[in-house]
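Please fill in the sequence for the structure shown.

STRUCTURE ENCODING:
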């Protein structure tokens, strides 16, 4: 999951799928490493501060409370999201990701995590689009 407005929708869908499958839910938040002018920041040292993690933890707590029968694990890391999620797909029943809906051109220029996962995931992938 990311910090977008659609993150709650994506996480709820993933929790519903975990509940239906009687499977644990592994929630991953991966921040892209920062380089350049910010060389001395915590992000470059591959650590996530408590302040950066607060919104993620709050959303995970909401899902844990809404789905008490689902074992929910949460991981926060600094690494490229596509790399982390491709690795996480090994051994998973389903990978649920969101789409920011940038469109084909922006996806090509900026890179699309969901497009990468559709090609490289070791398990089925569901891309949840934001509600309009």
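FILLED IN BY: designer on duty
SEQUENCE:
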């Amino acid at each position: 999951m990311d910090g977008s407005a659609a993150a709650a929708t994506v996480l709820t869908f993933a929790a519903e799928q975990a509940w239906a499958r009687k499977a644990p839910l592994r929630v991953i938040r991966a921040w892209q490493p920062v380089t350049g002018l910010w060389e001395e920041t915590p992000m470059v040292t591959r650590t996530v501060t408590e302040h950066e993690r607060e919104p993620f933890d709050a959303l995970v707590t909401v899902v844990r409370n809404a789905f008490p029968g689902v074992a929910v694990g949460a991981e926060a890391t600094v690494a490229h999201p596509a790399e982390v999620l491709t690795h996480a797909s090994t051994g998973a029943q389903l990978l649920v990701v969101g789409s920011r809906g940038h469109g084909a051109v922006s996806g090509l220029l900026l890179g699309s995590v969901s497009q990468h996962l559709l090609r490289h995931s070791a398990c089925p992938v569901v891309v949840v689009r934001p509600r309009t």
